[in-house]
Design goal:
Elements: H1 2-15, H2 26-29, H3 31-54, H4 58-136, E1 141-150, E2 155-159, E3 172-174, E4 180-187, E5 192-196, E6 204-208, E7 214-220, E8 223-229, E9 239-242, E10 254-261, E11 278-284, E12 297-300, H5 309-316
Length: 317
């Protein structure tokens, strides 16, 4: 057992050699073998240094440029279309995004302009109603229109105002411009029904402004007409007002203006025979009948008193 332990370090040394060898380098052991290589390297260095000092290396860079120039030019020719296409696509996408942003902005501005126009028109209508109320009847009541009904048998408006706001049947109803629309026929607590002057059942006495001729206003198929004596001289454009002989409306409310003689077939359907003593004319309301569905606010005059008709007529004119 002792012998084996004595030889153990030697075996380990032989099996694992030291990290740093003590043997001399081949350059040291045989210097003459590598001397020619060393001389060649030193000579080459001297030659390169001499050439650099005398001529420089421009010839080398020129040679490399002459060789690589055509290659670089060919690569540029191949890459340039791709680069231009990529730039065009990028600019197109950018322009599309900008156009979409501008379109969205334009839509917003158009909506704002439409809203401003709507508010302006509404303010104008309310201002006209207030001015008319102050001029004609301070106790008049403004009301909002809920519904417009136009049929062969009924032509009415429904108002968002009723008995709770003091409205009663029989009150005249005007537009914001002061034109007669009709009269209240039915009233509940919250809403009222207005029978329009072009309703089939509506007929009233009227006065022509210039000639002071008395006539009967009637309607046919929603159009307004006036029937006066044939001997009366009626001018085109003459304004027509409610008459003091009317039982439905106070005197002096504007109905419209005379346009032209009516067709013989457009006579008053409530008159059985005219016997050639009357002549009919068409009345054009200052606020066209075709635009009545767009009316949003109206003015309800107080229930009229025949004794106050003259004063109201002067104010309305």
């Amino acid at each position: 057992m002792a012998r084996r332990s004595d030889h153990l370090p030697e075996l380990i040394y032989r099996k694992h050699s030291p990290l740093i060898s003590s043997d001399p380098s081949p350059w040291v052991r045989q210097p003459g073998r590598y001397l020619p290589l060393f001389i060649i390297l030193v000579s080459l260095s001297c030659v390169i240094t001499a050439i650099d000092l005398r001529y420089g290396f421009t010839w080398l860079s020129q040679g490399i440029g002459n060789v690589s120039g055509p290659v670089v030019h060919s690569v540029d020719l191949l890459i340039a279309p791709v680069s231009r296409s990529a730039s065009f696509i990028q600019e197109t996408l950018r322009a599309r995004r900008e156009n979409q942003a501008l379109k969205s902005r334009l839509d917003d501005l158009e909506k704002q302009a439409s809203q401003m126009q709507t508010l302006t028109l509404e303010n104008d209508r309310l201002r006209q109603l207030l001015d008319l109320k102050a001029e004609v009847a301070p106790k008049a009541e403004a009301a909002q229109v809920l519904r417009y009904r136009n049929s062969a048998t009924h032509r009415t408006m429904t108002l968002r105002a009723g008995g709770q706001r003091g409205l009663v049947a029989g009150q005249p109803v005007l537009t914001q411009g002061g034109q007669l629309l009709g009269r209240i026929s039915e009233v509940t607590d919250r809403v009222s029904t207005v029978r329009l002057i072009n309703d089939p059942s509506c007929s009233m006495g009227v006065t022509l402004e210039r000639s002071q001729s008395q006539g009967i206003a009637y309607n046919r198929d929603g159009e307004l007409y006036v029937s006066v004596e044939r001997s009366e001289l009626v001018a085109d454009g003459e304004r027509v007002f409610t008459s003091h002989l009317s039982d439905l409306f106070p005197e002096g409310l504007l109905v419209g203006m005379v346009k032209e003689p009516a067709d013989p077939n457009d006579k008053d359907p409530l008159v059985a025979a005219e016997l050639g003593l009357m002549r009919n004319y068409r009345i054009e309301p200052l606020y066209p009948v075709s635009e009545w569905p767009q009316i949003r606010e109206v003015l309800c005059l107080p229930l009229w008193d025949p004794d106050q008709s003259a004063s109201m007529a002067g104010s309305a004119r």
